[in-house]
Amino acid sequence: MPLHGQLWIGVLLPMLLFLGGCRDAPPGGSANSAPHGLDPVRIARGSEIYRQNCAACHGERAQGAFGWERPGADGKYPAPPLDGSAHAWHHPYAQLKQTIQEGTLKLGGSMPAWKGRLTEADTEAVIAWFQSTWPDPIYAAWADIDRRSHAAGK
Questions:
Q1: What angle do CA 89, 55, 61 make, to 5 degrees?
Q2: CB 110 within 8 A of CB 76
Q3: What are the strands, taking DSSP E only, across the chain?
Q4: 147: domain range?
């Protein structure tokens, strides 16, 4: 076999196979992995929906509005972080979903109801996206809260 044939089989082919197998995998996982075992397709969809509908109030990275911890002049609190650094993770899934769908206006808050503007699947995708930003210990604590909520029939 000529030298260039041996070079192709011995060096270039394994390199191409290696690189080809790695190109679609995100750092730290396989192409099908996502934080907390969440669906990567749902996360991607939720990211887009969040950007279009939620980021104006909750921040591009779900970091919350400036001064979210203190009520404004109107007595209402600005949009809180959804990135795991505030209280969103203290609420079970059903309550997160309800808050998005019904808003907080009836409770004295300033978040509008998204029911009728976002489908149920859209709402679930947004939740998946912001939960994907939560650190592992926060997600694990939330999962425990959610399990206890289900066990209590809430």
A1: 60
A2: yes
A3: none
A4: 32-151
CATH number at residue 104: 1.10.760.10
Query: How many domains does one find in the chain?
Result: 1
Give the Cα separation of 38 and 47 in Å (integer).
13
Q: At what angle do helices 40-53 and 120-132 cross, to 10 degrees?
A: 100
Q: Is residue 14 part of a domain?
A: no
Cβ-based neighbour number of residue 128 at 10 Å:
23
Residue 4 within a domain: no
Residue whose entry in the numeric block shows the structure tokens 């934080």: 35
Task: Average pLDDT across each block of 10 residues of the chain; the chain has 154 residues. List them in order.
Answer: 44 37 37 84 98 98 95 93 96 98 93 97 98 98 96 84
Residue 94: inside a domain, yes or no?
yes
Helices marked H in 23-119: 40-53, 55-58, 93-102
- Rounded Cα distance, 130 and 43, in Å: 8
Whether residue 62 lies inside any domain: the answer is yes
User: Which pTM does this prediction carry?
Assistant: 0.77
